[in-house]
Amino acid sequence: MNTVSKPTIPSPAPRSSKPEILAEEIIERLTYRIGKDAKVAKPHDWLTATILVLRDRIIDKWMESTRRVYATGDKRVYYLSLEFLIGRLMRDAVSNLGLMEQVRDALASLGVDVSVIAGLEPDAALGNGGLGRLAACFMESMATVEVPAYGYGIRYVHGLFRQQLADGWQVELPESWLAHGNPWEFERRESAYEIGFGGTVDVVNNPEGEPRYVWKPAERVIAAAFDTPVVGWRGKRVNTLRLWSAQPIDPILLDAFNAGDHIGALRESNKAESLTRVLYPADATAAGQELRLRQEFFFSSASLQDILRRHLQQYDDFTSLPDKVAIQLNDTHPAVSVAELMRLLCDVHGMEFDLAWDITRGTIGYTNHTLLPEALETWPIPLFERLLPRHMQIIYAINAKVLLEARRNKSFSETEIRSISLIEESGERRVRMGNLAFVGAHSINGVSALHTDLMKVTVFADLHKLYPDRINNKTNGITPRRWLQQCNPGLTSLIREAIGDDFLDDAEKLKPLDKFASDASFQEKFAAVKRANKVALSNLVASRMGIKLDPSAMFDIQIKRIHEYKRQLLNVIEAVALYDQIRSHPELDWVPRVKLFAGKAAPSYHNAKLIIKLINDVARTINNDPAVRGLLKVVFVPNYNVSLAEVMVPAADLSEQISTAGMEASGTGNMKFALNGALTIGTLDGANVEMRDHVGEDNIIIFGLRADEVAAARADGHNPRAIIEASRELSQALQAISSGVFSHDDRNRYSALIEGIYAHDWFMVAADFDAYAQAQRDVDQLWTDPSTWNSKAICNTARMGWFSSDRTIRQYAKEIWRAG
After folding, report:
1. How many Cα atoms occupy the beta-carbon half-sphere of 196 within 13 Å?
2. Is 609 a catalytic residue?
3. Domain 480-803, CATH
4. Given a cut of 80, is residue 297 above it in pLDDT?
5. Catalytic pick from 560, 593, 792, 799?
6. What are phi and psi of 147, to 5 degrees?
């Protein structure tokens, strides 16, 4: 270990948490950092001044956390993710520092409402859905359970996109969350790295050992670091989220500019900045695919260079890397890190290939989030080789080692060896990034028990046979700080009154709440909290969309990425069938229900965008039909993000978790809803299986085919047309949609979408419809008994503590990272 002596710098005295001192500091920041007199300050000025005051307190703890790691030599965890859906940070920081009341009082003394200015903070547009939100929960939990960690990602200027609706169609607009700066972040000029693309590879022969390879990129950009502190619960530890911004080496070609080529002079600058402008550029074109691969390599290379630099600051060489560093790849997006770490160790630091391979595998872990083969990412070899020629050589070398190992095993057939290969040989030759991540990691984990079991027999069956000890399970979790304490303060206060404060530090200590499930007085208070949350959501929908909701109706909510396997289509078809029943049988006592949807569709995903349009077309018809008598409303709330989820989740009575069984790896929305006292209607998919085991079969509504039954139906070639014709409600609903009942301006708009259900029904919409419709009527019956409903809802909240991301991170730390 390096022993360079450094001067001892005394730690600053703890800063005051008294409201009057906080108020003074807020005024000071407002005056001298923002340049505003309090008399003319606007709400956004007060927001920034308050963040700066909080940030000072965080910095003290941040530096203390960093010094502690250097002093102890603790192992660091590096979490590489293309997404971090962190949402607004002010309330998170205030709560975790334990300063909520003090900050509220300080601002109130200045005539400022903390809830008003907190609502002005933009959501950081750094993610899409569950993958990015999981990464954010994990970062907060790593700080909470005191695991020293860095998160690495991309500082997207516009992120995914801001979703608007135009006549019911999704419209993608730039999400300019950085337009007015970000007071939480710190630019780190010293942490800047060159990232190369293209070019050639030269060989330098070494008579005494392996030849040395020198990559000479044709293009280079700079990765510049921006750090955001991540505060753990009670401020015990502050970790770092480091995001990379792409900058050109030469921002302007001055000769070209002076010659009059003003556009060409900025070509390199624009090319570099495009790398970090948008999350998930549409990959339907070759240019889009190339940009996506460039993004993935850009942030992976910058992160690895940073990790190795930091390691060498403290240790003499890289032989200790697996003991002091754990790198976790969040899905396949950073899978190129396997080849890049090998390149850095071998080509830059002169290590022999076999030793570098041992160190790489000992350091990297890989989390798989999908069983969809297309989501595991593959890249055409011509594209990969043109952009990353040295990495292509390394991948071929790794592949040779792996395939030789399989052939020596003698028990692998040619078909199995082709499946193990890092190169897809059937059709267009492509690099399999999932396979690369698998062979380059010592640990491959699924994110729910079912998902992990399915990994072993589906996408990674043959790799699992070759390396039977690598796959393990780490069921996902959510941070209870944001998804209970912060988003649902009314319920949090009620729970504290009932069982005390222990659950604030350990979510599994919610269990004593169970004994209040049948308490009539507690049920009444619980229902009052739920109604207040529903009123808040109703007010939001009214202000944004001009739609009036009845808070006494059942709020039935499905919020997640729009995808056919998540089956928003099943939900809206059932809404059409229910609409027909309400009109046909007005004499029946129907339960008032509001079906709320939110979520974004990938810009190039035609059917997903068509489903959004269908939901809005159905909503327009149902909501404007007096025959419905307000018993059913359908609402699609645009621009789903963390802040919107924080309003919708606490307001839900019924949580829709209805993916095709075997296709959802885990889900985390299911956990958030249940923790906040919603009942789940869902398939036995992802973490729903474990949720059923924890909350009890009587407190969750399960329907439909199981994963093995879905696989069998697909293999046997099930007959969806016969299923549809045997179901009167389903056939009538499908006929209404396909014939243009909800699309008078284009009667054929949905004909192809519905024909897909008749023809193959890959996502088992028809196969599960009758079971789903019956389950919904069972839900109606349950709703008519408020005492039973509330009892079940309370049981859900009481029994969801195991699904805390603190538990998940402790398992990662103990069983994969050997850290903390």
Report:
1. 18
2. no
3. 3.40.50.2000
4. yes
5. 560
6. -100, 120
pLDDT, tens digit (0-9, with 9 covering 90-100), for 661-703: 999 999 999 999 999 999 999 999 999 999 999 999 999 999 9
Q: Matching CATH topology for 73-88+123-475+810-817 and 480-803?
A: yes
Phi and psi torsions of 217, nearest 5° = -65, 150
pLDDT band at residue 155 under the 50/70/90 scheme? very high
pLDDT digits (tens, 9 = 90+) for 763-802: 999 999 999 999 999 999 999 999 999 999 999 999 999 9
> And the tokens for 717?
């070639």
Output the pLDDT for position 266.
55
| Domain 73-88+123-475+810-817, classified CATH 3.40.50.2000, yes or no | yes
Structure tokens at 742: 């909800």
Of residues 462 and 255, which shows the higher confidence score? Answer: 462
pLDDT at 257: 59
Give residue-wise pLDDT tens across range 38-52.
999 999 999 999 999
Candidate list 561, 567, 593, 799, residue with the active-site label: 561
Residue found under tokens 């071998």: 346
**Sign of the CA dihedral running 530, 807, 699, 580:** positive
Does the pLDDT of residue 147 top 80, yes or no?
yes
Q: Which residues have CB under 8 Å from 115's CB, separation 6+?
A: none
CA–CA distance, 124 with 241 (Å, rounded to integer): 13
479 is catalytic: no
Cα–Cα distance for residue pair 309/311, rounded to 1 Å: 5
Which pLDDT score is estimated for 371?
Answer: 87
Single out the residue of 430, 196, 143 nearest to residue 302, CA to CA. Answer: 196
Q: Read off the amino acid at residue 451.
A: H
SS3 604: coil
What size, in residues, is the chain? 820
- Confidence label for 743 from pLDDT (cuts 50, 70 and 90): very high
Residue 792 bears catalytic tag: no
The span from the CA of 316 to the CA of 64, in Å, is: 24
Catalytic residue at 566? yes
Structure tokens at 502: 């222990």
Q: How far apart are CA 486 and CA 479, in angstroms?
A: 10
Instruction: Say whether 668 is catalytic.
Output: yes
Written as six digits, the tokens of 730 are 């389903």
596-635, pLDDT tens digit by residue? 999 999 999 999 999 999 999 999 999 999 999 999 999 9
Q: Which helix (H) or strand (E) holds 272?
A: helix 267-273
Per annotation, catalytic residue among 76, 324, 474, 566: 566
Mean pLDDT computed over every residue of the chain = 95
Give the per-residue pLDDT at 66.
94
Return the closest-CA partner of residue 189 out of 222, 156, 162.
222
User: Is 237:146 a contact under the CB 8 Å cutoff?
Assistant: yes
Rounded (10°) CA dihedral 383, 389, 392, 397: 160
Other CB atoms within a 10 A radius of the CB of residue 539 amount to 13
Q: In this structure, what is the dihedral angle of CA atoms 656, 661, 665, 666, given to the nearest 10 degrees?
A: 40
Chain centroid, CA 736 distance in Å: 36
Short-list 478, 369, 447, 487, CA closest to 800: 478
Of the residues 672, 692, 749, 799, only one is catalytic, namely: 672
| 460 close to 410: Cβ distance less than 8 angstroms | no
Q: What are phi and psi of 227, to 5 degrees?
A: -105, 135
CA–CA separation, 811 and 56 (whole Å):
32
Q: Please answer whether residues 793 and 679 qualify as being in contact, where contact means their C-beta atoms are separated by less than 8 angstroms.
A: yes
Q: Residue 457 CB: number of other CB atoms within 10 A? A: 10
Task: Tell me which of 452, 668, 680, 808 is the catalytic residue.
Answer: 668
Domain range list for the chain: 19-72+90-122, 73-88+123-475+810-817, 480-803
- Collapsed DSSP state (helix, strand, coil) of residue 245: strand
Q: Are the beta carbons of 635 and 596 closer than 8 angstroms?
A: yes
577 closest CA partner among 280, 717, 776 = 776
Token pair 């014709």 is at which residue?
725
